[in-house]
């Protein structure tokens, strides 16, 4: 009978359970996606060119575990708030607490098992789909990558089942030891408003100190090396929590005392935030960390995506060299979006390659260099080419013959007298490496196979072979950055949306009261948008600050990771704004009365 009553109650509250299930499914899916990479040691060692990558992922797993733990605590609290009134009624009707304790234990554990199983399935699908999309878009091939990772499956199931088993025990204990009256009226109890005390200021100051230590640890990673990661992990997490628990509460109270509170429904919105902020402290801290992780990962991913062509272009002004043109090669060259095509005649004698300087006077040779991620290409005269070591190195690098040691430009008459066979060196320069990658790869493959001893594409001359090497070195970091950035973005949106929507039923009564007092729906909706806007803005601002300091960790790898930040920041903030608008629309449908009840 009790199981039947419980099922009917769940059926009546299916919308709330959908919010709960969707949040838990996304949480376990994102956890699996991270572990699919973190537990795949072959993938990490084979694709990521950072020696401490495995250790970084281990610390990342710990951080994600803490975030997931906080999320499950809130989800379990939401479940208890939905069910404790029903269980109070069951006890009033004569149900035994011992049987109800078993029922809540099984219900919590069953919800956990089902949501975890569905989440893992979703995680496998998202891992495979997102990986294929990123590999095709970024032109990256990840060796040893697999969407279905058995170790990640085991870690995810074990971790979530342990969490839900503990949650089941806690829920059973609460039910057995809470008075019936509190069970019946638990979801109607008002939160206590916060008070400004000296401890609040001390806590806020402590939070700032902890954040400063964390930022310092990230900025001095070359000195602290491995030690900087745990220091930053502990201090930034604790500092973020203290900051939300103190300074933002003080800020809301300060605004309530100002003139802003007297305009429209600002006083009501600030009052809502005043009561909410205590309950939201942990969740806002979690969302700030997730915001920083997501934005930082996407920023680093885009940084490497931008850096790879720059590294390649900086090695040579020309994309590829054609040594022995064939009809098939010439057809492929016509498919390229060419900017320039230059041909020089050469003779190789011993370890020296000779060129006719008249050809270089007619068509100037170009060299390139990188300055602050900007590729600078310039023409060089024959005299400079003869005397400039950097220019000679770039010309020598186009020969695809590592036995050669020097380049000499001679007059036309001397060039004709050199007793050696002539060959042509055709230099191709396209509008962009990324756009022309597929055709350049085909040409390079044909050229490499034409040598007496088959040559690797990486040993050919030009920027494209360097582009291939850079893709191998940094492509893994680029892929992981985008992959984890999108995963963390999904989880942070899920966390904040779940927390806001889980309190919709309680807030609905307050907005109905406003409606009955004659408040126009336009003002109510405006108040909701401002209130939710603050809840989205606070973690966004702190998350951006975390990222700005966190990028210091990538200075040894990327040189200057702060160049062109407007692109990843702009894309990310647009996605974040989209989540805010979706949350507002759903929340308004749940809490705003459908009919004005004016007096």
Number of DSSP helical runs:
22
What structural class do you assign from the helix and strand content?
alpha+beta
Mean pLDDT: 78
Strand content: 5-15%
How do the helices and strands follow one another from N- to C-terminus? HHHHHHHHHHHEHEEHEEHHEHEHHHHHH
Q: Which regions are unreliable across 5 or more consecutive residues at pLDDT < 50? A: none
Would you report the number of β strands? 7
Any overview of this molecule?
It is a single chain. The protein is of the alpha+beta class and 599 residues long. 71% of the residues lie in helices and 8% in strands. The protein contains 22 helices and 7 strands. It has a 5-stranded mixed β-sheet with strand order 1-7-2-3-6, sandwiched between helices. Helix 10 (228-257) runs antiparallel to helix 11. The radius of gyration is 32 Å and the shape is elongated. Keywords: Cell membrane, Membrane, Transmembrane, Transmembrane helix, Transport.
């Amino acid at each position: 009978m009790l199981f039947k009553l419980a099922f009917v109650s769940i059926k009546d509250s299916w919308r709330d359970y959908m919010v709960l299930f969707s949040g838990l499914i996304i949480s376990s899916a994102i956890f699996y996606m991270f572990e699919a990479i973190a537990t795949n040691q072959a993938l990490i060692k084979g694709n990521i060119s950072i020696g401490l990558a495995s250790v970084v992922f281990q610390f990342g797993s710990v951080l994600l575990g803490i975030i997931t733990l906080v999320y499950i605590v809130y989800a379990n609290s939401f479940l208890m708030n939905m069910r404790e009134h029903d269980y109070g009624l069951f006890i009033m009707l004569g149900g035994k607490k011992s049987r109800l304790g078993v029922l809540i234990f099984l219900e919590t554990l069953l919800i956990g098992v089902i949501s975890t199983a569905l989440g893992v399935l979703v995680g496998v699908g998202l891992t495979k789909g997102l990986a294929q999309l990123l590999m095709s878009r970024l032109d990256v091939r990840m060796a040893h990558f697999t969407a279905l990772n058995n170790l990640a499956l085991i870690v995810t199931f074990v971790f979530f089942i342990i969490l839900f088993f503990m949650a089941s025990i806690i829920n059973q204990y609460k039910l057995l030891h809470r008075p019936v009256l509190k069970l019946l009226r638990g979801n109607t109890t008002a939160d206590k408003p916060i008070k400004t005390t000296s401890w609040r200021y001390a806590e806020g100051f402590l939070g700032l100190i902890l954040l400063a230590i964390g930022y310092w640890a990230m900025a001095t990673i070359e000195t602290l090396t491995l030690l900087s990661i745990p220091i930053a992990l502990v201090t930034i997490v604790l500092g973020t929590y203290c900051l939300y628990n103190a300074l933002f509460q003080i800020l809301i109270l300060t605004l309530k005392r100002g003139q802003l509170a007297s305009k429209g429904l600002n006083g009501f919105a600030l009052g809502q935030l005043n009561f909410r902020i205590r309950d939201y402290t942990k969740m806002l801290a979690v969302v700030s960390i997730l915001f920083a992780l997501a934005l930082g990962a996407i920023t680093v991913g885009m940084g490497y995506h931008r850096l790879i062509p720059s590294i390649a272009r900086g090695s040579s002004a020309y994309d590829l060299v054609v040594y022995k043109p064939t009809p098939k090669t010439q057809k492929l060259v016509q498919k390229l979006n060419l900017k320039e095509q230059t041909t020089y005649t050469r003779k190789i004698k011993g370890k020296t390659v000779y060129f006719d300087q008249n050809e270089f006077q007619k068509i100037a040779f170009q060299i390139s260099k990188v300055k602050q991620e900007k590729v600078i290409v310039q023409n060089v005269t024959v005299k400079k080419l003869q005397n400039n070591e950097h220019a000679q190195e770039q010309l020598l690098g186009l020969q695809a013959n590592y036995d050669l040691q020097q380049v000499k430009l001679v007059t036309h008459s001397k060039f004709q007298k050199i007793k050696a066979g002539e060959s042509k060196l055709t230099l191709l320069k396209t509008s962009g490496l990324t756009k022309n990658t597929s055709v350049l790869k085909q040409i390079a493959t044909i050229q490499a196979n034409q040598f007496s001893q088959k040559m690797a594409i990486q040993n050919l001359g030009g920027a494209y072979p360097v582009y291939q090497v850079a893709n191998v070195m940094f492509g893994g970091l680029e892929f992981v950055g985008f992959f984890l950035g999108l995963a963390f973005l999904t989880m942070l949106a899920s966390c904040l949306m779940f927390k806001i929507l889980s309190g919709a039923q309680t807030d609905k009564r307050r907005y109905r009261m406003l409606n009955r007092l004659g408040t126009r729906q336009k003002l109510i909706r405006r108040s909701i948008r401002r209130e939710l806007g603050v809840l989205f803005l606070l973690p966004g601002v702190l998350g951006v600050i975390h990222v700005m300091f966190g990028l210091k960790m990538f200075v040894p790898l990327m040189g200057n990771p702060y160049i062109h930040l407007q692109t990843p920041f702009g894309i990310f903030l647009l996605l974040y704004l989209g989540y805010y608008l979706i949350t507002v629309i759903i929340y308004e449908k749940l809490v705003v009365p459908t009919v004005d009840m004016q007096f």
